[in-house]
Amino acid sequence: MEDFSAIDKYVNAAKKEIGLPSGTAIAVVKEGEIVYEGYFGYANIKENKKVTAETAFYIASITKPMFALSTLLLEHNGDIKDSTSMAEMFPKQDFLNIDADKVQLKHLMSCSSGIENDAFLNTLAFTGNHNLKQRHTLLSASAKNETNPLGQFEYTNLGFNIASVWVDDFYAQGWQKILSETIYQPLGMNHTSSYMSDATKKGIAVARPYGLTGKDPTAILPFEKSDITMHAAGGTIATASDLGLFLIAQLNQGIVNGKQVFPAEVIKKSHQQLVSHNASFLDFKRTGYAWGWQIGPYKEVECFIILVVLLVLIPTALLFQSIILV
């Protein structure tokens, strides 16, 4: 049996150094199984609610690879293609400031669409003042990104949010339900949702957000997500063990608990580089972007796909990290 005590020591030492017992959940996956789970600190400090295996965290941009995989599964079912253009996705939409015939789904899913629309982004993520009609109105205001044209990488939520409007249109129901039907339910991610209201309905305990910049670090930060501000590039709550199931599917060609949950070819395609770029995060060198994933070499080992390191509202953190050999 492997010894993971070093993880416990590291996390506890970090919390002691920071001086704030905020919540942390860690899951380690190896050979198709979750081999370690660690839960530290408090989901709610003042109410003394400890983080447990049932504690969900708002996982922000981890939503991107989940939603991107969902679109590939929709492609596998014949509902859309990676080459489907925005003009084809929205045949009744007027796009006066972009060439909608050239922007394809694969550009939207790889942050290389060459368009910008801050009003659309801010409305979906922050103000929540929108319905489907208003989302279409905002979508029409999309403009060319003069500094990052089509085919050039610039990290953004925009493409995922645009694709979510197509999902709302095509299936006549919210992207959240489609994501649940294509990803969460097949994997048995029973403590995962893209509706904050499910926390109450399904009894999912969600870790509260904290930060070190205010006068009282133990005070819950004022901005928390609601259903209307959850979006397809950052709109999911999940437990560490549920994310472990999603990670196993990535590492094991779509097989989880001995079952082929997702077609192997779809998983493989989701890891394929769509655009190149040159950046880094700590010691992770990024050379490209796939379907919601940053990719590149790690520690001088070539041909690795690097998934995501996510810290949600530091120091309230969920660490979700993996390296996939391709």
TrEMBL record:
<dbReference type="InterPro" id="IPR001466">
    <property type="entry name" value="Beta-lactam-related"/>
</dbReference>
<dbReference type="InterPro" id="IPR012338">
    <property type="entry name" value="Beta-lactam/transpept-like"/>
</dbReference>
<feature type="transmembrane region" description="Helical">
    <location>
        <begin position="304"/>
        <end position="325"/>
    </location>
</feature>
<keyword id="KW-1133">Transmembrane helix</keyword>
<feature type="domain" description="Beta-lactamase-related">
    <location>
        <begin position="23"/>
        <end position="299"/>
    </location>
</feature>
<keyword id="KW-0812">Transmembrane</keyword>
<keyword id="KW-0472">Membrane</keyword>
<dbReference type="Pfam" id="PF00144">
    <property type="entry name" value="Beta-lactamase"/>
</dbReference>
<dbReference type="InterPro" id="IPR050789">
    <property type="entry name" value="Diverse_Enzym_Activities"/>
</dbReference>
<protein>
    <submittedName>
        <fullName>Beta-lactamase</fullName>
    </submittedName>
</protein>
